[in-house]
Design a protein that fits this description.
The protein is mainly α and 128 residues long. The chain has four helices and no strands. The termini are far apart. Bound molecules: zinc ion.
């Protein structure tokens, strides 16, 4: 059973994480713009490929962050409709221990393990 107080703490963690990611993204976009504008002035080919690599890295990072942002926002929305901490799959409460280590969890540990096993099975079928 997750208490109201525990839920409130989890919500604060989610809000904090969301703002951290957004802050980090704002910074990395600025850094990239700086690199790009310097590069245009004095870039040779080697610099160009390093630049492309750097940009790809930043884009990958942002892609991962975007997914995380989506998860965080989805979790925060659940606070509004009261479904936070309820397993999407079986409808039972997710344990506080699990939410503490993974506040964006939308499945209880049993359903999560089941899902992972299913994915493993699918992967090994595809490999054959
Ligand atoms: Zn479940």
């Amino acid at each position: 059973m997750v208490t109201k107080k525990q839920k409130e703490t989890l919500r604060e963690v989610l809000v904090k994480e969301l703002s951290d990611i957004e802050e980090r993204n704002r910074k990395s976009v600025h850094e990239m713009e700086d690199v790009m504008s310097n590069q245009r002035l004095e870039g040779d080919e080697a610099d160009q490929s390093a630049l492309i690599e750097q940009r790809n890295y930043a884009l990958r990072l942002r892609d991962r962050d975007r997914k995380m942002i989506n998860k965080l926002q989805a979790s925060l929305r659940k606070f509004e409709d009261g479904s936070y901490g309820i397993c999407d799959s079986c409808g039972l409460e997710i344990s506080h221990d699990r939410l503490k280590t993974r506040p964006v969890a939308s499945l209880c540990i049993e359903c999560k393990l089941e899902q992972e096993q299913r994915e493993e099975r699918d992967k090994s079928i595809r490999r054959r």
